[in-house]
Amino acid sequence: MKYECPKCKGQLKYWVEVLSDKERTINKSTGKLNKKVTRSSEIELEQEGIKCTKCDFYYYGNLNGNDEKHEHLDAIFENLS
Ligand SMILES: [Zn+2]
Question: What is the pLDDT of residues 26-51, one digit of tens each?
Answer without folding.
Answer: 999 999 999 999 999 999 887 888 99
